Amino acid sequence: MSISIKVQPYNKTIFADEGSLLLDALRAGGVYLNARCGGNGSCGRCLVKIGGRSVRACRAKTPARDTEIFVPELSRLEEIYSESRPKLVPLKEYPAAPAVEKIFVSSSEMSRDSSGEFEKVATVLSAKAAVADISVPLDLLREIAGPLSGANGRTFSVFRDRHPVSARVLAAEKGDTSSRNYGIAVDVGTTTVAAALIDIKSSSVLDAKVAYNRQIAHGEDVITRMIYASNPDGLDALAHLAVSTINDLVASLLYSGRIRPEDVSAVSVAGNTAMAHILYKINPSRVRLEPFAPVIQFFPTVSPERLGLNINANAALFAAPCVSAYVGGDITAGLLATGILSSEKPCLFVDAGTNGEIVLGNSEFLVCAACSAGPAFEGVGIKSGLHAVSGAINKVSSLGGRGSGLIFSTINSEKPKGVCGTGLIDILCELLATGVMNRSGKFDAADIRVRKYDDETGAGLEFVLVPSTDTATGEDIVITEADVQNLMRSKGAVFMGISALLKETGYSASDIAKIYVSGGFGNSLDAKKAVVIGMLPDIPVEKYKFIGNSSLEGAARMLVSSDARRIADDVARKMTYIDLGANPYFMNEYTSAMFFPHTDENLFPTAKEYLAASLARGGKK
Predict the structure, then answer these.
(1) What is the arithmetic mean of pLDDT over 209-238?
(2) For all residues of the chain together, what is the average pLDDT?
(3) Eight-class DSSP state of 558
(4) For the chain, which end, N or C, has fewer CB atoms within 10 Å of the first or last residue's CB respectively?
(5) Cα dihedral 58/60/63/68 (nearest 10)
(6) Which of 576, 527, 210 is nearest to 364 (CA)?
(7) pLDDT exceeds 70 at position 150
(8) 360 vs 501: CA distance, rounded Å
């Protein structure tokens, strides 16, 4: 028997079979919960309230009668707004030659000879697009047969396929519509999807939005999703969730910008290897199996319609190329947002996302690696963790001694809901500095803010940062010793990945001219505190540059510059991949990083000095 379920606070009614799994019923009805464990019951983030009683949607059955449920804030997958947008500051490396240019051709520009009508247009288009050859698909040629310039001229969407060698016509419109040329840049991440609306003609960013990747409903990590993709209909389900996330972001961008979908001429996508495969509906199973090779590195250019996107079917969709199974297009695109590719001195690029990808190099060489950092610094797997949403604690500091407590700030100054990545790094640093936590990550049980806990997330000691009376959710915001161990593994993987690449190439940290840090941290990460916990090398903080979502910025650059797209392809061919899983130094030394900041304090002289001074002011060892 079919029943109706009214879902609040969305005021949405869905229908489901009596006795079906509630989580499946909600998914089918388009209501996505924060089921980060994929529905295996371990994360406790799919809680919903039925008649005032909290139940796990992944374990509860739909009732025998029509009912109403309420989805608490922490269980919702909703849009999140990023602190940073891609920055399209003109760079000499990427001159303006957009991937798709809309070129108006008037009848007066056409020659009057007896050559073919399209050949006359092609002559004009080739000159204006600065390419040697222009082609047109047969279907379009049939559609626009007759005087191709038209009485009032026509605007041709020209895709620079292999700039400056060749291009092809994607569409033709009557009249001069060349001023209405927009693109969508997309970063498909494991945890979040970001999209930006780009005015291609002016190379400007009009708007950007971020949302949780709805695939989280089938697991928080990429391995879980690759396994799920191998199930019958699993790949289709994951692709649908990614596409629906992108479509909602695009619809919101176009609506707020008052842009018609048919005015979007190009879509540029960057994502890790597995996410790109899933978006293209290519089974990613080979990525996680020996020899850990992707099915494809260089993805074909297709119509957005082929992937299910609700964007102009005549637009060109292309993706940044992958390097290996675990270094994807988010990294090749991300490098376009750094100065590494034109630097004479060695630089580092660190993407502190779920995988933890690292690139070392300059204009002459590039080596890369991926480490299993996990999504802890994205708030995933942390008891009170959040992504960078309004109300997330993003800054934590102390007034000095143990008795002075910790003070914090939140994104948009809203009442606190949880803690995001930058806040987690700050908390670790301040707990160390005040002596509440020791270097092995254990809490001082005698501290008045430390207590025992035993709930569905585990058991042990936890530190109460904000009591429930002062939070937006009515729940305490805490960090547990289990959270600390999770974060310690993540920071240790990042640091040892950097150390392994330096050792492999014969450089030391002092040789590095600049370290570009990308990821969900935006520009609010405190470099000194990241050094204190042992996540980043102890070098002068002025050498650090935080660049936000470099994958999205790189995707945007590929829209406005064909040269940027070509350079991304060159980077993918040029880069050497180092497998840390087979690297003896990384495997042998990783455990030494399971300490704050490291078992070898001499690697972190600044951190050692900082902690000693802080403890002397009021903490204890």
Answers:
(1) 86
(2) 86
(3) H
(4) N
(5) -70
(6) 576
(7) no
(8) 7
The continuous run of DSSP H or E covering 245 comes out as: helix 234-257
Residue 328 has pLDDT above 90, yes or no: yes
User: SS3 letters for 327-353?
Assistant: CCHHHHHHHHHCCHHHCCCCEEEEECC
Mean pLDDT value across residues 556-572 = 94
Q: In angstroms, how far apart are the furthest CA atoms of the chain?
A: 93
| pLDDT band per the 50, 70, 90 thresholds, residue 75 | confident
Three-state SS sequence of 113-137: CCCCHHHHHHHHHHHHHCCCEEECC
Is 165 exposed, middle or buried, given 0-12, 13-18 or 19+ CB atoms closer than 10 A? exposed
- Range picked from 137-146, 220-229, 339-348 for highest mean pLDDT: 339-348
172: three-class secondary structure by DSSP: strand
pLDDT surpasses 50 at 595: yes
**Is-contact 284 277, C-beta < 8 A?**
yes
Per-residue pLDDT, averaged over 85-112, amounts to 77
What gap in Å lies between CA 220 and CA 222, rounded to an integer?
7
Residue 256 CB neighbours (<10 A): 12
* For helices 562-574 and 550-560, angle between their N-to-C axes, nearest 10 degrees: 130
161-199 residue pLDDT tens: 877 888 999 998 888 999 999 999 999 988 889 999 999
Residue type, 454: D
CA 143 to chain centre: 40
pTM for the complete prediction? 0.85
Q: What gap in Å lies between CA 533 and CA 567, rounded to an integer?
A: 36
CA distance 485 to 546: 25
Backbone angles phi, psi at 3, to 5 degrees: -125, 160
Cis peptide preceding 9, ω within 30 of 0: yes
CA dihedral angle for residue 553, residue 558, residue 559, residue 563, rounded to 10 degrees: 140
pLDDT at 526 over 70: yes
Between CA 560 and CA 100 the distance in angstroms is 8
Q: Which residue has the tokens 């704050």?
A: 596
CA distance 293 to 173: 43
Angle formed at CA 521 by CA 515 and CA 525, multiple of 5 degrees = 65
CA distance 308 to 26: 22
Residue 581's pLDDT is: 82
Average of pLDDT values for 26-39? 68
Residue 546's DSSP bridge partners are 517
| C-alpha span between 276 and 108 (Å, rounded) | 45
The sign one gets for the Cα dihedral 294, 296, 301, 306 is negative
Is the distance from CB of 3 to CB of 22 less than 8 angstroms?
Answer: no
Type of residue at 108: S
Tokens encoding 298? 């260089």
Tokens of 541: 């903080």
pLDDT of residue 169: 92
Residue 268, CB-side half-sphere exposure with 13 Å CA sphere: 33
Residue 81 in this model has a pLDDT that exceeds 90: no
Number of other CB atoms surrounding residue 448 within 10 Å: 9
Among candidates 520, 513, 553, 519, which has minimal Cα distance to 350? 519
Rounded distance between C-alpha atoms, residue 514 and residue 518, angstroms: 13
Name the one residue in this structure whose structure tokens are 């080979």.
Answer: 286
Measured distance CA(72)–CA(44) in Å, rounded: 12
Name, of 47-56, 452-461, 496-505, 609-618, the range with top average pLDDT.
Answer: 496-505
Q: In what order do the strands lie in the sheet with 458-466?
A: 450-455, 458-466, 477-480
